[in-house]
Amino acid sequence: MATQKRRKKKKKNLTGGELLAFRVLMTACAVLLCVSTVRNLTAGGAKKAAGSVSEETELSGNVMTGADAASAQLEAGDASSASAVTPEPTATPTPDPYADKPDIDINSWEYVLANPWNSIEDYCPDVVPIEDIEVDYRIYDAMEAFVSDCRDAGNTVYLSSGYRSYDLQKYLFEKKCEEYDEETAATIVARPGTSEHQTGLAADITEEYYEYKSAILEDTAMYQWMEAHCQDYGFIVRFPDGKEDITGIIYEPWHFRYVGVEAATYIMEHNLTLEEFVALYKDDVAGATDTNDAGETDSSDSADEAGSSDSANDADAVQDSVSES
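Request: output the structure for the sequence above.
Response:
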């Protein structure tokens, strides 16, 4: 077979129009590529920016959380420190030594108070005779039993003085003022209205008649029995030794006063005067009571004001005053 002679293809040159179209096409492709690149770059930057903001927010949140935690720890520390501070010791209140005082009506007739600072004016009780004296009818039975049992114990008993009226006390006081100046006389004889005897609730009791009484009477068997048992009958030693500055009266181991068994037991066991006993109830004594009706009087100031009478220990008073107090 005969060898065929290959024929070379002749290269075809582009015309001007075709070249222009080609260039336009290439430019368009380049533009599209640029636009695409810009879009990709813009999207990536936005994502990165968003990521940065998110990260910063998270970091900020972590910082705030840490601050809050630190603050909470500080507060807890302060609270712990506060609780760790040793509290101031609470003062223990002093127990009231008289918290067990009797539950009584201090305005009742048994507790009427007559002393140099508390006058009962012209108060006049209903009295009845007992032996050679008179007493308030309400204490007759107690006085009779007191005296009778003392005698049954082998003692002699003499009721030397009981109720004295306001007028009699006034007479005795004015008579004493003829011998002494009024101030001195008042240390020997109680002023009218301030005498225990005017209450009808008191009596001077000895083992025999004495023109003058003195502290040596405490050595008698009769007094020792009565002092030991008087509270069982509702009586007290009205003017005890060592309490002159409170009662305004010298020691009288013969003057017994009725206050009722409950009060008498408490007074004698606690070594109190009637002034001190009444003062325990000063909050209960709101005002003066009608002494003319039930033998009651305002005694709220008695114990507080007592203590100014130096003349109660006057030497001249030791012998004479006691039977007239």
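The CA atoms of residues 76 and 143 lie 76 Å apart.
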